[in-house]
Amino acid sequence: MPIYAIGDIQGCYDELTALLEALAFDAARDRLLFTGDLVNRGPKSLEVLRLVKSLGDAAVTVLGNHDLHLLAAARAQETGKPGDTFYDVLAAPDRDELLDWLRHRPLLHREPVLDVTVIHAGLPPQWDLDTAAACAAEVEAVLRSGAIDAYVENMYGNRPEVWSMALSGWDRLRFITNCFTRLRYCDADGRVALKAKGAPGSQPPGYLPWFQVPGRRSAGHTLIFGHWSTLGAGRFDDVYSLDSGCVWGGKLTGMRVDGGRELTSVPCAGACKPGEE
Fold first, then answer.
1. What's the pLDDT score for residue 274?
2. In sequence order, what are the residues at sequence separation of 6 or more whose Cβ sits closer than 8 angstroms to the Cβ of residue 258?
3. What is the pTM of this model?
4. pLDDT at residue 79, rounded to an integer
5. pLDDT at 277
6. How far apart are CA 255 and CA 268, in angstroms?
7. Domain contains 123
8. Number of folded domains that form the chain
């Protein structure tokens, strides 16, 4: 039973179907692990959601920042931003079914037999995998509850900047959300730099890619993530990055998880220009 991980799609449905064809994916036999950001910026968010949902147990997707942004816009807590392209979802006859399915997706997925964990963005250095899973469960419980409106109203923002077990309320949930869906760089103390989006070497002094911070407690386990198109697809010791910038005219990348970790990519026409938000 082959298992493939696939990087950020962001509404690029045609490229997704091309990649599945290149992988010879068979939903009756294989499984897919998506790194999140199924929607937005690309042209066919609705088709992507419908396809991934239709795969049932053959597919798992974690939530990315664009997926959460869609949920916020759907609940009238966020009016959208220039460049948003998920309004086909909001106008669809099956929107409620799709959005309910989306808000029940996890922030973290573990394949314990393979010791593989899938997230969208990153983990602060203070979290081991058990702590990360527990923190993910806190946010997931709120997303799936009647408190979702209050959650999406309070999830935006860059503070707190550093983890503490003493964090509580919306500050705690916001920090957890930011790590799972927005993190790229942090310093040795785990202080996050959420505005830094460029490739390694462009970050503020004293900051490192989250997976290179010395003493990271999740080290020694295989982690797969997306989110970072300027980093690109590649391996960094026990960590694999799969966002190869499909929506920006790069590639959509999949990786065989249960074998040699080989990468398969398809070219993308690009729906956005680099530098656009």
1. 60
2. 1, 2, 3, 114
3. 0.96
4. 59
5. 42
6. 17
7. yes
8. 1
Q: What is the CATH number of the domain that holds 171?
A: 3.60.21.10
Phi first, then psi: give them for residue 34, nearest 5 degrees: -95, 140
Query: Tell me, what's the pLDDT at 57?
Result: 96
Judge contact between 262 and 256, C-beta under 8 A.
Answer: yes
Q: Which amino acid is at 40?
A: N
- How many alpha carbons lie under 13 Å from residue 263 in its C-beta half-sphere? 16
Residue written as token pair 């690029």: 12
Nearest to 36 by CA among 71, 67, 69: 67
Low-confidence ranges of the chain (pLDDT < 50): 276-277
Q: How many residues does the chain have?
A: 277
Strands (E), 107-258: 109-111, 116-118, 185-186, 208-209, 222-225, 234-236, 239-241, 251-256
For residue 174, what pLDDT is reported? Answer: 98
- Give me the amino acid identity at 17: T
| 186: Cα separation from own chain's centroid | 18
Is residue 277 in a domain? no
In the prediction, which pLDDT does 61 show?
A: 98
Host domain of residue 252: 3-267
Residues 17, 19, 20: CA angle, nearest 5 degrees: 65
